[in-house]
């Protein structure tokens, strides 16, 4: 039997969604990381990727000012760091330092990548849309970097690299089964 549910958490029905760490810099070059579960590819040509960020988040301002960000795909083995970056504000602490994450230079942007992540989309801000209570930052993907051991036939090897998925309410999971259907 199906019953009506509250509209308040309608988005929970789309979960789990992969949780990513988005890096962005302030004007002085200090890097912040924000955990984002609302993100998606937008276009193949040009290559566009969107992230949804509330204006109250510290990273929102950073992305608006520097006009770039990196989407870092996190393995489940760093789920506690992913959760930490989602629960704390970069206004108050250095999340990179406190979460013990390692930054490495990106190839095309000033904003660095997170070494512990298995793939990275370097994005230059292409457009911004204010939709409801969030801003969708659409980035043009200018470079993709990935751990060559994380992918088989261009697909993520879920047995080797378990991606982090957000379920809701500070609950995370990962993928345990993969099946190719012909």
Which oligomeric state applies? single chain
Task: State the domain count.
Answer: 1
Report strand order across the widest sheet.
3-2-6-9-10-5-4
What is the number of helical segments per DSSP (H or I, 4+ residues)?
Answer: 3
According to CATH, what is the class?
Mainly Beta
How many runs of DSSP E, i.e. beta strands?
Answer: 14
> If you average the pLDDT, what whole number results?
94
- According to CATH, the homologous superfamily is Electron Transport, Fmn-binding Protein, Chain A
Low-confidence stretches: none
State the end-to-end distance. 34 Å
User: For the CA atoms, what is the radius of gyration?
Assistant: 16 Å
Strand content: 35-45%
CATH topological fold name: Pnp Oxidase, Chain A
The CATH architecture assignment turns out to be Roll
What's the story with the biggest beta sheet? 7 strands, antiparallel
Provide the structure class.
Answer: mainly beta
Query: What form results from the Cα inertia axes?
Result: globular
Helix coverage percent of residues? 10-25%
Order of helices and strands: EEEEEHEHHEEEEEEEE
């Amino acid at each position: 039997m199906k019953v009506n549910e509250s509209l308040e958490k309608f988005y929970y029905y789309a979960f789990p969604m992969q949780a990513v760490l988005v890096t962005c810099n302030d004007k002085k070059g200090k890097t912040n990381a924000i955990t984002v579960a609302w993100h998606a590819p937008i276009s193949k040509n040009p290559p566009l990727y969107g992230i949804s960020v509330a204006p109250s988040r510290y990273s929102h301002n950073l992305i608006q000012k520097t006009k770039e960000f990196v989407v870092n795909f996190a393995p489940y083995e760093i789920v506690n760091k992913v959760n930490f970056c989602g629960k704390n504000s970069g206004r108050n602490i250095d999340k990179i330092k406190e979460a013990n994450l390692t930054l490495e230079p990106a190839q095309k942007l000033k904003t660095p990548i997170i070494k512990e992540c298995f793939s990275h989309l370097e994005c230059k801000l292409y457009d911004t849309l204010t939709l409801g209570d969030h801003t969708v930052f659409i980035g043009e993907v200018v470079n993709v970097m990935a751990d060559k051991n994380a992918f088989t036939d261009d697909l993520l090897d879920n047995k080797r690299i378990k991606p982090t998925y957000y379920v809701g309410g500070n609950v995370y999971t990962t993928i345990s089964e993969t099946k190719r259907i012909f």
